[in-house]
Amino acid sequence: MITDPTQRGRILDTFPFLRAASADFRDTLLDSGTLMRLPAGHLICQDGSECAALPLVLSGIGRVYKLGENGREITLYRVEPGQSCVVTASCILSGRPFPAIAECETQVEALVVRPSEVRQWMGTSTPWREYVFGLIAGRLQEVFGVLDAVLFQRLDQRLVALLLGMRKAAPGRDIRMTHQALAAELGSSREVISRVLKGLEGQGLLRITRGHIELLDIPELERRAREG
Amino acid sequence: MITDPTQRGRILDTFPFLRAASADFRDTLLDSGTLMRLPAGHLICQDGSECAALPLVLSGIGRVYKLGENGREITLYRVEPGQSCVVTASCILSGRPFPAIAECETQVEALVVRPSEVRQWMGTSTPWREYVFGLIAGRLQEVFGVLDAVLFQRLDQRLVALLLGMRKAAPGRDIRMTHQALAAELGSSREVISRVLKGLEGQGLLRITRGHIELLDIPELERRAREG
DNA sequence: CAAACCTGAGTGACAAAGTCACTGAGCCGA
DNA sequence: TCGGCTCAGTGACTTTGTCACTCAGGTTTG
């Protein structure tokens, strides 16, 4: 139950679809949901387990990834404020186990709603339904994209694209990230990432120092990401 | 509009969720849907294109796959009678392009419904909604499984598992399939499949002849598929 | 019937990527 | 400043993908 008017306003701002919903539905959601603060590293859903609740993210970032027996991992997508992990939702609605791991990458504030409500609202609120379907379709597309990249794209291209993407998210030439973390994004291994980075450094496209990477020739890197 | 009572009965038998739906909804669906017969090889949806309709499969098999620039491909899942390609549905509901290719593997009979109806029924019929969500969750799980296999499993294991799965589908020791087709299932290439099969033949586990494969030591193959 | 043709399969050389077992380099606290 | 920690580099090897072929078994057709 959310009573604080400031919090209620914040929720409406973060989830614009609520503005399109009926006042009735808005109240139901705010009354039945619980505001939770989850620490970084908290596991929201484990691979193969049932999903007990659907968190609507208000702040912070969630990360959904697959983990192999050997310890290698790959990021499937991130859940940002205003979104929710809809794979969770689809698992809730169909009673299936969750096929990956969902974890808080940073501290996460979320409005947590119960499966029974998720299910019920699908029938009663069109904006809610469209919100959920929009998320599902978006995730499907992201996961299909990951599969495509893994199967059909070269690792050096994927790595360069990732680095450029991160630069866009946090402008500047410096990227603070370990080789291990880059490997976990792409589903590769640290050694391989190190080798590829070293190759790019040899070509003068970037500079590697402990814990971060400085992009030097950005136009050329952009060309590589596009053409290979 | 489906009027023939035999056809109507067949549809109800193929889609049991319709029995749980109201008579009203059943009639709406049967009145607004069109029965189509699509030849083998017909493309239902191309990569990146908009989906114009949702086909509910009555007979035959559809196959959904990803195609890389180099020509390599990988099967994501198959659509069997009683199912539908829900990725299509989610694309319809969210107006996104389809992220793969959907093709008729055999001749397919389908009840085709319009996007506007798909969308509308999500609000009006609970059985329809649960049907669609069940399909989506199932597909998500399949696609996640493919990703897992591609990233974390060895090809020989995957190939053996595929062969054993095919034997279960069509009992007998003989599997009629080209190396190219096996490669397309697994997202590999013909040469590599040939090599792996040759290795298995060298170990006396199967026998290769032009166009088909005879499984010899099935218990050992099953052990391989499990343990590696 | 035999030559031409097509599809399926095998081969060898190489490149890309993952694995394993290390070594070494920077950093921080005791 | 010593020890321990995390991060990164290296070399040898395996697995998988790619390329450019050749070859083998059928079918079609002149």
Short characterization:
The structure is a homodimer of 228-residue chains. Chain A is α+β, with helices and mostly antiparallel strands and 228 residues long.
Structure overview:
2 copies of one chain form a homodimer. Chain A has 228 residues and is an alpha+beta fold. Chain A has 2 domains: 5-151, Sandwich (Jelly Rolls); 153-227, Arc Repressor Mutant, subunit A. Helix content of chain A is 51%, strand content 21%. Chain A contains 10 helices and 10 strands. Chain A has helices spanning 5-14, 17-20, 23-32, 86-94, 115-124, 126-152, 155-169, 179-186, 190-202, 218-227, and strands at residues 34-38, 43-45, 54-59, 62-67, 73-79, 101-104, 108-113, 174-176, 206-209, 212-215. In chain A, strands 2-6-4-5 form a 4-stranded antiparallel beta sheet. Chain A has a 3-stranded antiparallel beta sheet with strand order 1-7-3. In chain A, helix 7 (155-169) crosses helix 10 (218-227). The first copy, chain A, is elongated, with a radius of gyration of 20 Å. The mean pLDDT of chain A is 94. At the A-B interface, helix 4 and helix 6 of A face helix 4 and helix 6 of B. The first copy, chain A, binds a DNA duplex (30 and 30 nucleotides) through helix 9.
